[in-house]
Amino acid sequence: LAEKKDKKVLFMDFDPQINLVQALGKASDESKANLDNLMIDYLKGKKINFEDYVIKITDNIDLLPSSNNISLVEEYLTDYLLNKTFSEHKVYKALNRNMVIRDIFEENISENHYDYIVIDSQSNFSLLSTTSIIYARKVIVVIKPEWFSLLDIDYLSKIIKNLERKYNVEIKIVGIIVNAFEKRKTVPKHVVDTLQKKYGDRLTIFNQKIRYLVHYEKSISLKREPVFISFPYAEASYDIIRLFSQVEKSVDSLG
């Protein structure tokens, strides 16, 4: 979609499962360019050239991948703050780890270089997940139409309120995307109806749903390409293109 609309996009993979890396057809170990090395090199005081840590997918798409070793970053951060505590005679708390990571991004990523920066992250209280929310300040929630998903939205809302209070930032939920929707089944319809009744007055629930269609899986597992490239005339492609237009309008309206 970035190619179709001539938008410059940076994808940042904050998920230890590296699903985004695999979805874009890149092996997790094919390069030393990744999120882990960026943060560790920064903490070691090395000079950072951001382009050395990203993988260029196309002329318009850059990827800052994660790896299976991302948990090592927490150890380096703890050591880094301990050293600062001793050298500066100042106590640094656990919450300072989030601010260090945010500073790494703000110092090294030029927002003017990209039309959009998209972060793939899990919705939990982990260091990377909370940092991604603080840095982005705009959250798009993707859920499956299952009853437990409603609890996930409540949980995420609590996380956001907690982060706003701790870090004095304003975080906005852009909207909710319903993924893997099966219109012939009763439960997904009931979940979406409940979603609309419970959150529709305060959150945008995008009308266009991503339906459960086989072309999505084929495009990733077989073609390693976006569905609208692998199967441009499939219903799955039309779903994604229509959804992107709705999301783009909501994101742009928030400034």
From TrEMBL:
Gene3D superfamilies the record matches: P-loop containing nucleotide triphosphate hydrolases
InterPro entries on file: AAA_dom, DNA_Partitioning_ATPase, P-loop_NTPase
Domain called AAA: residue spans: 4-173
Pfam family of the protein (one): AAA_31
Protein's UniProt name: AAA domain-containing protein
Protein source organism: marine sediment metagenome
